[in-house]
Amino acid sequence: MTEYAIDMQNLTKKFNGLTAVDDVSLTVEKGELFGLLGPNGAGKTTIINMLSTMLKPTSGVAIVWGSDISSDPTKVRRSIGVVFQGNTLDDKLTGRENLDLHGRLYGMSKNLRRERIMEVLELVELPERADEIVKTYSGGMMRRLEIARGLMHHPNLLFLDEPTLGLDPQTRNHIWDYIKRLNQEKKITMVLTTHYMEEADSLCGRIAIIDHGKIATLATPTELKAELGGDIITLATATEDSAAQLLKVCKELELVTDISLSGSTIRITATSGERAIPQVLNAATKEDIQIESVNLRKPTLDDVFLYHTGRAIRESNVDEMDRMRFMMQSHRK
Ligand SMILES: Nc1ncnc2c1ncn2[C@@H]1O[C@H](COP(=O)(O)OP(=O)(O)O)[C@@H](O)[C@H]1O
Ligand SMILES: [Mg+2]
């Protein structure tokens, strides 16, 4: 019998009238780097909080590294590390002191703490800054220290809740490298949550797209994108009427697998975008419809999300808010 890293069945969490997590079942295999992708409020943190025994489920069961989260939370906690969504470091302490505090909470001996602190600091390339107060760290360094802290007691499974929230792209890339290395070289099973599409795409072997507390779809990024049936062509016409007219004729084209309309913009999915575009343009000319712009691209996880939920995760808007939230979190206390 295979033992999963995580086996959750019908997990549900209700807050008063709100169902934050709605009957979610999934399994994560040992060694996986698994992603929960979804917009703010989708229920990702609530899932992580239940799996890491911080929050009791309303119903459902979950076995984490062989132990039941409800009946055996202490054993679960010994197998896992958690990097929480918000900054939970004490910024008046040094990096080393933060790690030491964590080691004490886990009942580690002084010698073991000293050994592990050096080990995890090296892993995230922070030894030179170890004795400086966390307040002087950059956002990326704080995140790296939190990852280090999550690894102090050698967990088999590490939960990372929005590991790069609010970080700039370069720092984000840097954190991605650590996450990949920990999974590949140290063989740590990981479950991360994110609302950044590229993060899920670049890091995760499999992804569950979460929306309104439910799994909208679950597969590898490649499978998810392939499922959409091809390339995406976006055409802008001058008016909504001409777009509607063009939609009608494009529907008949052989290469077109899906087509939708939003105002005066048409979105076409086609098995070969390069070959479909001339056909579409010919059709437009025949109908005397003026095309203002054409765009062709390969599908991204954004498109996957849109396809499954009917909505887009507008990341550019979110980014600024995240940065502000991150800064506010860092300056609280
Ligand atoms: N302690 C709580 N009490 C009431 N509602 C909550 C609580 N925690 C989360 N929620 C709500 O549950 C939903 C899911 O939240 P969350 O799991 O934080 O989403 P995500 O991490 O995907 O952004 C949201 O609507 C949120 O407002
Ligand atoms: Mg969250």
Describe the structure concisely for a colleague.
It is built from twelve helices and 14 strands.
What features would you describe in this structure?
The chain is of the alpha/beta class. The protein folds into 2 domains: 6-225, Rossmann fold, CATH 3.40.50.300; 229-298, Alpha-Beta Plaits. 40% of the residues lie in helices and 26% in strands. The chain has helices spanning 44-51, 73-79, 95-105, 110-123, 139-151, 169-184, 197-203, 221-226, 240-250, 273-287, 301-309, 315-331, and strands at 6-15, 18-28, 33-37, 59-64, 67-68, 80-83, 157-161, 189-194, 206-211, 214-219, 231-237, 256-262, 265-270, 291-297. A 6-stranded mixed β-sheet has the order 6-7-8-3-9-10, with helices on both faces. A 4-stranded antiparallel β-sheet has the order 2-1-4-5, with helices on one face. The radius of gyration is 23 Å and the shape is elongated. It starts with 5 loop residues before the first strand and ends with a helix. The model has no long low-confidence stretch (mean pLDDT 92). Bound molecules: adenosine-5'-diphosphate and magnesium ion. Magnesium ion is lined by residues 44-45, 85, 161-162. Adenosine-5'-diphosphate binds at residues 15, 18, 20, 38, 40-46.
